[in-house]
Amino acid sequence: MLEKVETFDMNRVIDEFEEMTRNADQVQKQTLEDILLKNKSAIYLRNFGLDGNATDPEEAFKSMVPLVTDVELEPYIKRMVDGDTSPILTGHPVSAISLSSGTSQGRPKFIPFTDELMENTLQLFRTAFAFRNREFPIDDNGRALQFIFSSKQYISTGGVPVGTATTNVYRNPNFKAGMKSITSLSCSPDEVLFSPDVHQALYCHLLSGILFRDQVQYVFAVFAHGIVHAFRTFEQVWEEIVTDIKDGVLSNRITVPSVRAAMSKLLTPNPELAETIRTKCMSLSNWYGLIPALFPNAKYVYGIMTGSMEPYVHKLRHYAGDLPLVSHDYGSSEGWIAANVTPRLSPEEATFAVIPNLGYFEFLPLSETGEGEEKPVGLTEVKIGEEYEVVITNYAGLYRYRLGDVVKIEGFYNNTPQLKFICRRNLILSINIDKNTERDLQLSVESAAKRLSEEKIEVIDFSSHVDVSTDPGHYAIFWEISGETNEDVLQDCCNCLDRGFIDAGYVSSRKCKTIGALELKVVRKGTFRKVQEHFLGLGSSAGQFKMPRCVKPSNAKVLQILCENVVSNYFSTAFD
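== Jasmonic acid-amido synthetase JAR1 ==
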């Protein structure tokens, strides 16, 4: 996909990062001043009395501009989507609008995308690549197996290009030029990346990787889920891929003309390679070590593996064998925040160093959010061991925007904090005084899954819902599992799930019966793929998709898919 021609000066990039993080406080002040200067004509800022003439821009900004969420900014962004070209949030027109995945709230959010955000993306990629390549040097003539899917942009009624954040990055004219020196040539032709059919694209990514197997240096997808899904798919289609390679003829499943033409150019009959792959696959025990078996020169597996991706790490490690798992960097559809500068740390230990010039960052102490007066602290004022909600101000018209991410400060890299992602703040299971986050749900599922693993069965995916159709209300947990087991085992799992929520409000409510018995609902195989298909139909990118861990009432269609596919259910007896 990407041609590698420019020289990349790894040491220079690292030195620049070192200098910037030593002066993080000053860089933050300069970044905010630059943002306010470039957007001084923005109507939004002028409405709060900011006109670019303040003696102390930082103090004026924090005292005059309120903390907001997407709800407060939605009317402004809608005007931009509808074609209003006046300086609403930014001093200059936005190049595109990004769509969030929509899995958290049941609907995608519109987020401005600008050339500055594109530059930020390239800067973060360069920084992360420098540290990663210092630890895991890749060959100049190597390739990358990249499970990248770029969905289509569409033009809004107001004439503005709209697409997912990943699509806006990949389709940006500066992307290829900016990435030339910091990425390996992709195994897959461009036509696969831009395929309108993600299933055909995935098959072709796998086939392309096999064709260049000896050159593959690393395996990448934006999210760990994407890599796991790719190799689960490989388990189902590998024999078909082997046939394609042996005969030199592409499977009839590939019907997109541009994709078929591009892939056919790569294929010639290769019975020897086909037999090698067949032998490798037949020799594996339960597909353990599949990735290094297929790609003997791969040095690592790379993708976002923290937060909501943690449940997939166990399976990813199974496929990766002894290959290192390297966590991708920390950001969101709203923009990038921090880079992984310690790539040898495991996903469970991974931290991310904030890059001080990507935006102006504030941190809302978790104990203060939601009650009383909220007083965020600056980038260099955070305390090690404390948890905060991230507040971002960027070049694309987001000012003191509450991201909804909870992070923990694990330490400092020079004078910039190193963050560990904890959970999404708004994904809370709550009926009365109980409050359980996505992280609490994840820990409960991990605990219960250990009982299931004793039967050689794994949890493929999961979600949850607060069921208040009965009195008292109760938690419902949806599981898709890899095989069948007896009811006693699943009843044990259900009880374990219930006991896994250790929030004091939940435990006391369960004991006094103001929260009903937790319900485990086992769904048929393929159910969570149907959920993914639903979100892809709404415009989500396959590469950007994240499974919703808590299905809100507003997410009625997802709840319907889950409930219609329940094959058995169990109620906890843990508090009887």
